[in-house]
Amino acid sequence: QEFFLVSDRPLTAVEMRCFHLGEWERGLALLQRLLDTEASTAVGSADGVGVSENIAGFVMLAYARHLELRGDDIRAMQMYERALSTVTSLSHQMSSSSSSQLSLVLRCERG
Q1: Global pTM?
Q2: Which of 23, 30, 86, 99 could join 57 via S-S bond, C-beta 3.0 to 4.6 A?
Q3: Residues 6 or more apart from 34 whose CB is under 8 A from it?
Q4: How far apart, in whole angstroms, are the C-alpha atoms of residue 27 and residue 104?
């Protein structure tokens, strides 16, 4: 994990924690750490939205699906809402068409 974090692909550490090891809570904490680092260094994409910030909603959505499949419906719904909230906050920074598409996907997932 630490090697990925100092490389030019720090999000691979999040992917490893969440998707490969199933350590969702640690992966989300790591993602938050990357978001905090991006915010403090003002490093991100050209449109002002950081790379980690762009995928945060997708990671949360995947975790919500995971929780739902495990039968943890209450936590799954909370994570779906958190993902939707993330997308909503990003919609102020992204183009309206991109954020609308992502928001639509998350609303469909929530049911």
Answers
A1: 0.65
A2: 86
A3: 10, 11, 14, 52
A4: 25
Fill in the DSSP letter of residue 93.
T
Helix (H, G, I), strand (E, B) or coil at 25: helix
Angle between helices 73-91 and 96-110 (to 10 degrees): 170
Cβ atoms of 64 and 80 closer than 8 Å = yes
Token code pair at residue 73: 């419906």
Task: Confirm if 89 and 50 have CB atoms less than 8 A apart.
Answer: no
Q: List pLDDT tens digits, range 26-63.
A: 998 998 888 887 766 654 444 444 556 667 888 888 99
Q: How far apart are CA 68 and CA 86, in angstroms?
A: 19
Q: Could you give the CA distance from residue 19 to residue 101 in angstroms, rounded to a whole number?
A: 23
